[in-house]
């Protein structure tokens, strides 16, 4: 689903906080299954907020904080409807350069600089979205041969390398 539905990919990235990466990126599939069809920004934006929160909170919950994340997902969907006619691809289609792509991603609700840089790297490394300057816009996440984020995960082995890199960074930060 993540490879064919750009909204699912954005929602997975949005969910990727305070829970394991696999849980976050399986969230869009769970939401789609509960809705009974593929994800669409217009539908999510117009969903009753309490009902959408209940949808995410149903067992097993889509996120550790399902009601809060339901609100964030709806804010993202509303933004996409208002600025990109509901198209997640519109965020990166026809982008002039990497700096513009980063600015567009940082404007999305729930996307700070780090999350936006990781998403730029994900687009460039895995989806071939490579406007001029994308690696620079992605910062350290755009470097080749690193295992820093979801942008570098392509299989179980690379997932373990990303986890090891994150653990080492946490240890270094504590010193």
UniProtKB/TrEMBL annotation:
Q: Could you state one GO biological process linked to this protein?
A: DNA repair
Show the coiled coil region(s): none
Q: Which SUPFAM superfamilies match?
A: DNA-glycosylase (SSF48150)
Q: Which GO terms describe its molecular function?
A: catalytic activity
**Name of this protein:** (Fe-S)-cluster assembly protein
* Source organism: Planotetraspora phitsanulokensis
